[in-house]
Each structure stands twice: as structure tokens, then as C-alpha cells.
Amino acid sequence: MSEKVVIKVNDNGSYRITGDVELVDAEGNVFETKKSFSLCRCGHSAIKPFCDGTHRKIGFESAPRANKENP
């Protein structure tokens, strides 16, 4: 059985993906990934869909929290 995939929403930053996951584009092509990688959430990365840290330079702010009202 494979390890559970965890997607962490980093405050003011990226989505951190950890676990055995396959990332594919709209045409079904597979992106090369490691066991843990970050996806862009701010929309300004030069290497989308991956994060390059640009969120820090542009002052991206977002810190959502999970709760029972937001599935």
C-alpha cells in the first residue's frame, strides 16, 4: 500500500505535496516530481506549476484555515 498523500497549504506561500502522487498536465503528460514538491499558489512563478519562491517577492498573502463549514 502506498503512503498517504498530504497537501499542505502554506501560509502566504505554496501548496506542499508529499507522498506518492503523479502530476499530469491537461493533455495527460506526466511532470517529473520528487517525493515532496511545491506547487505555485500565487500565480507568479516562472516555473509553473511548481513554486519558485516568487510569492515572497510579491508579498502574496493568504492563510486559509480548514473548518467544518468549508469542506
Automatic annotation (TrEMBL):
GO terms for cellular component: cytoplasm. Gene3D superfamilies: CDGSH iron-sulfur domain, mitoNEET-type (3.40.5.90). Pfam families: zf-CDGSH (PF09360). Keywords: 2Fe-2S, Iron, Iron-sulfur, Metal-binding. The keyword Glycosyltransferase does not apply. Residues 22-61 form the Iron-binding zinc finger CDGSH type domain. GO terms for molecular function: 2 iron, 2 sulfur cluster binding; metal ion binding. The keyword Hydrolase does not apply. Transmembrane segments: none annotated. This is CDGSH iron-sulfur domain-containing protein. It comes from Ornithinibacillus hominis. The lineage of its organism: Bacteria, Bacillati, Bacillota, Bacilli, Bacillales.
